[in-house]
Amino acid sequence: MAKSIMIQGTMSGVGKSLLCAALCRIFRQDGLRAAPFKSQNMALNSYVTRDGLEMGRAQVMQAQAAGTEPDVRMNPILLKPCSDTGSQVIVNGEVRGQMPAAQYFGYKTRLIPEILAAYRSLAAEYDVIVIEGAGSPAEINLKQNDIVNMGLARLVNAPVLLAGDIDRGGVFAQLVGTAVLLEPEELARVRGLIINKFRGDAEILRPGLAMLEEKTGLPVLGVVPYLQADIDDEDSLAPRLERTASRKPLDVAVIRLPHISNFTDFAPLEAHSLMGVRYVKRSDELGRPDLLILPGTKNTTGDLLWLRQSGLEAAVLKLAEAGIPVLGICGGYQMLGRTLRDPEGTEGGGPRFLRGMGLLPTDTVFLRQKTRARVRGEVAAGILAGACVDGYEIHSGITARDDCGEGLDFCRLEGGRADGCVRGNVSGTYLHGLFDSGEAAEALAQALCRQKGLDYETASPVERTAYLDVQYDILAKDVRAALDMEAVYRILEEGA
Question: Residue 432 to residues 168, 335, 391: CA-CA distances in angstroms?
Fold first, then answer.
């Protein structure tokens, strides 16, 4: 069975996901077969595996860092919030249903056998399992039924490294306070501390490290700098969603919907030398971009109502009428159509019928059955025409184009199936990962340059996988230099 090591944090957003990815990469570089594991992930960024199952993007990113194929066993429970008090519950890649938080709190311990089955199955195939916690182990109101922090560490007998975020301030209070709130048997599992996201001169920090070790009785295994690797973020707390301006020649505006999902779709555009991507929450921020994108969402009807009430829908319609290219992806595509019907209440209690934006001749009916598929094809019409794409579908709902001959297929998929719709300067598609191959991103840059009258020198498409491979090496190099890796390997060998 594989050895294990677990990264827990003093709170959400301390960088657990990237630290786990770095360890996955380091172990791979050192000749070990490593796999990530997070028993329960709450995020709206998800991914479809080769066998058509859904998992969180964070563990996909970590699997890629480890050089292994993403597997739903690496994230057996995925919670996709659909409101402030409830989530869609996905277990082993399949939807179990929608649950209010209180109901799930009582239900989740029944999932422990499935969590352990997934973990043990991975542990039989790999040398090392790198486990990521969630939030903080010191959330005393949630400890009773914990299945993702110390509760999981106990179930799989994993040693724990505790990480704090110095960039937010108060890292010493974070780490000492967390240690104080842990039960003695929980604290005994913590084998070392990590200070993450440090900027500045580490020598100035050294006196504080000695006091930290004295107060907690735990060694500080490293001070990790604020990492510069360009790697997908886990959720909507990501700093990239705060981008509101760009100095690049092409301006791409993405509507920051309240329940935005799979915004990792736009990471290849953000990395492109010519395209600046910004996220817009108000109509007065929108301006006149070169491309407007309506992204995916976990609550299409709720977010369409928000667009309508905020004045952004009117601004989008005005830009579309002026000839600005508009692209809708998944939920954004559904919004662009004429009608949205939800006869089964799939959208979490929203309206059963809603008028769409009317920019595409399509109608959507939401169903409880979720479509999950990996797909390849060629864009047939619109601003990306001719580009080959390799993406995936995750959506509840069927969208049909009217039969009056209006509109074109957006994409022709392998096997003869069509996807999406194009009418004039407005395009819609269900395909996530649209720009990952690099070819579609390059086609978009060229088309926007032509539209804007800019010179464009053809460049080789940057394949996203190759780009990320370099970024994972950068991440591993920085973390390896910052951590006491001899101590990490010793902890790995000794276990809990």
Answer: 32, 16, 5
The CA distance from 393 to 87, in Å, is 20
- Number of residues that this document lists for the chain: 496
Q: Is 221 helix (H, G, I), strand (E, B) or coil?
A: strand
Name the pLDDT band for 496 (thresholds 50, 70, 90).
confident
In angstroms, how far is CA 93 from the centroid of its own chain? 15
Cα three-residue angle 429-78-346, rounded to 5 degrees: 55
Domains of the chain: residue spans and CATH:
3-231+469-494 (3.40.50.300), 250-453 (3.40.50.880)
**Catalytic site includes residue 432:** yes
Rounded distance, CA 13 to CA 337, Å? Answer: 36
Q: Which of 330, 395, 411, 421 is catalytic?
A: 330
Element housing 114 (H / E): helix 112-123
Residue entry with tokens 């209010």: 100
Does this model's pTM top 0.90? My answer is: no
Helix (H, G, I), strand (E, B) or coil at 226: coil
Q: In what order do the strands lie in the sheet with 94-100?
A: 40-42, 77-81, 86-91, 94-100
